[in-house]
Design goal:
Blueprint lengths: L2 E5 L2 E3 L5 E8 L4 E10 L6 E6 L5 E3 L7 E5 L5 E6 L8 E13 L2 E9 L3 E5 L2
Parallel strand pairs: 2-11
Antiparallel strand pairs: 1-3, 3-8, 4-5, 4-9, 5-6, 7-8, 9-10, 9-11
């Protein structure tokens, strides 16, 4: 059974930094894509940063040059380094892995798994 475990959220002052981590456990066949999303109160969930298995990245305009997504070599763990944090970055952050997997319902070419969410609050 595939599970995701997130860590690293918290309270930080404007201009500060945080690093989020997300570890995938369980048997998967292939990683299609990885990413971080966030959802602020009253707003839809939005993509913050995406990462392909070959290392391609994409970022929301609002976080470019401040956030960096990465993956540990040889491990199914991704990170989101967040620098120069702003109050508008306050949200619950979710990691997402889209993978090929044999699940209880059979083979899935691309199945989404979500982390439990971690709160990031940027406030003085």
């Amino acid at each position: 059974q595939v599970q995701l475990a997130e860590s690293g959220g918290g309270l930080v002052q404007p201009g500060g930094s945080l690093r989020l981590s997300c570890a995938l456990s369980g048997n998967i066949l292939k990683i299609n894509n990885m990413g971080w999303y966030r959802q602020a109160p009253g707003k839809p969930r939005e993509l913050v940063a995406g990462l392909t298995p070959r290392g391609g990245t994409n970022y929301a305009d609002s976080v470019k040059d401040r956030f960096t997504i990465s993956k540990d070599n040889g491990k199914n763990t991704i990170h989101l380094q967040m620098n120069s944090l702003k109050p508008e970055d306050t949200a619950v952050y979710y990691c997402n892995w889209n993978v090929a997997v044999i699940a209880e319902t059979g083979y899935h070419r691309g199945r989404d798994y979500w982390g439990q969410g971690t709160q990031v609050t940027v406030s003085s």
